[in-house]
Specification:
Layout: E1 16-21, H1 30-44, E2 48-53, E3 64-67, H2 84-103, E4 107-111, H3 112-126, E5 130-134, H4 138-144, H5 155-166, E6 171-174, H6 177-187, E7 194-196, H7 213-221, E8 229-234, H8 243-254, E9 260-265, H9 270-279, E10 286-290, H10 297-301, E11 306-309, H11 320-326, E12 331-334, H12 337-343, E13 348-350, H13 355-367, H14 369-386, H15 389-404
Parallel strand pairs: 1-2, 1-4, 2-3, 4-5, 5-6, 6-7, 8-9, 8-11, 9-10, 11-12, 12-13
Helix pairs in contact: 1-15, 2-3, 8-13, 11-14
Amino acid sequence: MTTDPSMAATGGRSLRVLMIAPTSFFGDYGCHVRILEEIRALQSRGHRVALVTYHMGRDLPEVDIRRTMAIPLRSDYEVGSSRHKVGFDMLLFGRALRAMARFRPDIIHGHLHEGGLIGWALSKLSGKPLVFDYQGSLTGEMSDHGFLRREGRWFQPMWRLERLIDHLAPEIVTSSGRASQQLCDAFGCDPERITELPDCVNTEAFAPATRDGAWRALRRAYGVPAGRRVVVYLGLLATHQGIDHLLEAAKKIQAQRDDVHWLIGGYPNVEHYVDQARELGLADCTSFAGKVPYQQAPRFMGLGDVAVSPKLSRTEGAGKLLNYMALGLPTVTFDSAVSREYLGDLGLYAEFGSVEDLAAKLALALDDADLCASLGPALRARAQARFSWDHSGDLLLQAYGRLLG
């Protein structure tokens, strides 16, 4: 009988987990953070993890990363929704085969749909059980990114492929209750196969900022004039993330006042949005920080008085909301099931897709000091109570344990 509670779900065994991530890990955002924190949770419990991923990305000393080779003549290609993904995934399958032979895993853990499909092939070849980490609809994401049109000829074939992948793994972990419902309602998955493993946050690393001299100096370094209220965003800079809506809302607010600064971190498309802000007359009140390493994210986000996440996708997770919550930042977001799952009654919700209401809710957060003073501590308490990686690590091991008997 094991004396270590963290090993109980796996019968006292120290597991070897082969993760497959069809992305350029590590990229300081979204699903990359989820993958990293899952690895940390497993390793802290004595399990070994090897991660197979694309050739690009930032190496992390604590993660055993096994990368593919680069596609000839395209070594600097940033992967997104693209036909080039087929080539990258073929290389990923080959690299995963080699890793499986050398690492000899007990569990195969496939992230995203391509990882789930590659993981299924490896599972069939090796006899090792598969967990599929579902973080949103494949066709929904491709549509959000403008790569696939719902009325186009390729939508139905891709939807059928997505449904097939959703049914391959005996165990599925999802990033939200909304994702679990989507798998059951839209793709006919058995709820008994699904474990809700919500995105979580390290509340020790993401803690309310101390507004001291270093904090003021960092604000100045990012071009924030003294005395301004700061609205902060950190994430991908893309249309489906609502950055165009955010800048339009900023224009409406700046037409009424001059005491607000917009601090926007993330990538890609930085130059595009710098130009757009200039065209909207926002050059003097916006700062674009570019890529912010994950380790520096708490300090960067902590420079804000109000946080914003104007995401326009209803199918993807919204992990940045948890970081905002842990920092005790009043948070404005579009009203969606995923946002409400994280923020509960403590979010400031704008009508989905409405620039006018986004501006109105941002103005409310900037003006109502009493409201913000009550929301901040309550949001942090909610993050601490409901979104701990310790709890999610236990849930993941329980899913592994069911597969291993």
